[in-house]
Every structure is written in structure tokens, then in C-alpha cells.
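Lecture notes, part 5. Sequence design as translation. It can be helpful to think of inverse folding as translation between two languages: the language of shapes and the language of residues. The source text, in C-alpha cells, appears below.
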């Protein structure tokens, strides 16, 4: 059995896919790794590129060619046939540190935890690199290589959410829970970082900087311009998360797990408010649509025991609640106040990276 199945969703990535695959396919990985390139109806040469690697590395690379169904459909197509002990997602415009991958495979041979968490590097469009760990202001609260009951980690409160780039799961866990992602929209990697938390029993942290997350590519889904155009999809994704929580038999979960998931969903709702009230350009803000969305989210928060929602700026310097302002005045902050807030955000981000993420 392979140690790790890597699912690589691919749509119109013929220029970047070789870099991704070359970072994986070295002699020390070939026998232990399954690389599953899922071509999501690409209209460029992505399928030809994937097939050329399958021909060169038939013992490692498999190709799934399917009609376009967006991100979640690629995971749903690959997961049922994955052969690895563990499974992880790698986007085609990103790559792995090759040396770290070899070390990661070495460690997976002796691990049986449901969740495996590693570091990742964020590459920004200004050329800077940011190492991301699950730590608290430079202090790392968990011993690397030690298996923890997940409830113990969630109880501590150090971790408010997980991110796709850091996560690998035991494949059988996902199959047992019938894991599926929403199809037809973007941002469903949020489900990958959320739904398994309902079922996972234990977790291990490894001191390995594996995933290289490329935010520098124009058109990347986390590009602020793309987010502004895709807010409807983000809204739909938030609805999916709330619906999953509402349909789950919550009473089967520990109080710790329930509290963590409620806080997680509260933060997802807050993020949606932030996109509308703080992030998107004023010219794209639709007050009537937002009023309807606000009523929907307020009802959901009441139904599921979420909140309260406070929308303070990330900079921690300006202590003004943007959502409270909306509820009082039914408009966004004044232009001058938004400009002041953006300046404070940039300043505190600059300081945080240099102090805690060197």
C-alpha cells in the first residue's frame, strides 16, 4: 500500500503543473507515493502534461480526466480510488519542498493518527516568504511527533481553525464518514479543513515545512480581486458549512468539540461579514443584498447558538465594530475611516510577520 495519496486538482494549469509534479517525483518517493492528477475539464494542455508524467512514472502517477465540476468534484472523483494510507491535497499551482516530502513519507510509515499537521510556506506577490506554523505568537504549544487526543488540543484554545495546506488525513477516516465536498463552486477546501474534525479521534504535529503555497499567481482564488468577484460562492460555502452542522447529530460529540465547531462557524460567518463590510471595494458593495444576507446569517447564528458576531479590524488598534455601525446606520464606515483602518492593518501585518514569522 502507498503511504500517501496526493490529489492534485487541475484546471488550465499546463504551465505550472510540471513544477508541481517535479517537486514530487524523485527516486526516494516513487514507491511510497501515489500522485493523482485530476483534470477538471481543462481547455489547455493540462491533460497532455499529466499523461506525459503518467507514462514516465506509471508506478506513481495516475490521471483522472473528467468534465468540469470545480474544485470539490476533483476530490470526490479521486478519494474513492485513492490507495494511500494517508491522503492530502496539493493544488496544481503550488508545490512541495522535495526534501521535506521525503521526510514526511518516512514519518508516515510509523504514524496512525487521524490528522497529521505540518507547516507550510506562503509565497506572496512581493517576493516575500512567510512560514506558517500552528503556534501562538512564536510559542509552539505542542510537542512534535506526539499523538494527542483531538479533544485535548481543541480544549486548549490555541487553534481556532485548520487550513487545507497543513492537513493530511488517514484515508480510511474519510471513507468511513462518507466524506464529500460540494461541487460547482470554489472555496470548498474549507470543507476539507472542517468536516473531518467532526470525526477525527487524534492528531499529530510534525516539524516539517512541506507545502509551498503560491499566492503570487494572478487569478489565484485568494486574490482580493477574485474574492470580490466570487463572494456569492463564498456565501454558498458558508451556507454549506452551517447546513452540515445543522444536519449532524451534534449530541454525539463532546462538549469540547461542539464548542470548537460553534466557534469555528462563528468565525466563518464573521469572515463573510468582513469581506462585505471591510474588504471589497465600496463600488462593489450592494447594500440591499447585504441586508438580506445579514438577516439570513443572524437567523442562522440564533438557530445554531453561534456568536455574538463582533467585527473589529484585524489590526487591534482601531476598536470599532463595523457590523454594529451597519446595524445602526445601514451603511459602511465613512471613506476616511476605512482608509485609516487599511493603513493600520498594513502596519500591524508588517510588524507581526517580522516579529513572529521570521
Amino acid at each position: 500500500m502507498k503511504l500517501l495519496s496526493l490529489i492534485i486538482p487541475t484546471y488550465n494549469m499546463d504551465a505550472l503543473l510540471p513544477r508541481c509534479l517535479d517537486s514530487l517525483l524523485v527516486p526516494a518517493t516513487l514507491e511510497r507515493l501515489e500522485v493523482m492528477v485530476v483534470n477538471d475539464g481543462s481547455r489547455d494542455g493540462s491533460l497532455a502534461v499529466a499523461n506525459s508524467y503518467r507514462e514516465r512514472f506509471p508506478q506513481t502517477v495516475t490521471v483522472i480526466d473528467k468534465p468540469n465540476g470545480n474544485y470539490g468534484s476533483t476530490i470526490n472523483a479521486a478519494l474513492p480510488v485513492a490507495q494511500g494510507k494517508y491522503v492530502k491535497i496539493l493544488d496544481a499551482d503550488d508545490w512541495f519542498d522535495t526534501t521535506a516530502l521525503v521526510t514526511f513519507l518516512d514519518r508516515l510509515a510509523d504514524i496512525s493518527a487521524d490528522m497529521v499537521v505540518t507547516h507550510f510556506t506562503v509565497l506572496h506577490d512581493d517576493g516575500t516568504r512567510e512560514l506558517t506554523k500552528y503556534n501562538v505568537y512564536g510559542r509552539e504549544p505542542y510537542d512534535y511527533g506526539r499523538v494527542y487526543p483531538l479533544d485535548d488540543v481543541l480544549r486548549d484554545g490555541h487553534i481556532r481553525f485548520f487550513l487545507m495546506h497543513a492537513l493530511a488525513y488517514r484515508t480510511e477516516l474519510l471513507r468511513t464518514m462518507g466524506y464529500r465536498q460540494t461541487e460547482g463552486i470554489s472555496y470548498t477546501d474549507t470543507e476539507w479543513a472542517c468536516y473531518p474534525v467532526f470525526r477525527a479521534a487524534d492528531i499529530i504535529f510534525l516539524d516539517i515545512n512541506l507545502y509551498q503555497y503560491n499566492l503570487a499567481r494572478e487569478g489565484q482564488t485568494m486574490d482580493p480581486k477574485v474574492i470580490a468577484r466570487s463572494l456569492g460562492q463564498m456565501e454558498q460555502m458558508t451556507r454549506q458549512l452551517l447546513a452540515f452542522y445543522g444536519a449532524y447529530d451534534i449530541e454525539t460529540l463532546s462538549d469540547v468539540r461542539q464548542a470548537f465547531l460553534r466557534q469555528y462557524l462563528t468565525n466563518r460567518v464573521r469572515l463573510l461579514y468582513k469581506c462585505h463590510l471591510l474588504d471589497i471595494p465600496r463600488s462593489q458593495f450592494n447594500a440591499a443584498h447585504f441586508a438580506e444576507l445579514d438577516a439570513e446569517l443572524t437567523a442562522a447564528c440564533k438557530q445554531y447558538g453561534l456568536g455574538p458576531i463582533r467585527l473589529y479590524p484585524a489590526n487591534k488598534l482601531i476598536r470599532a465594530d463595523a457590523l454594529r455601525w451597519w446595524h445602526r446606520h445601514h451603511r459602511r464606515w465613512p471613506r476616511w475611516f476605512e482608509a485609516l483602518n487599511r493603513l493600520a492593518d498594513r502596519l500591524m501585518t508588517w510588524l507581526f510577520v517580522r516579529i513572529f514569522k521570521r
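The translated text above is only one of many valid answers, since several sequences can fold into similar shapes. The chain has 13 helices and ten strands.
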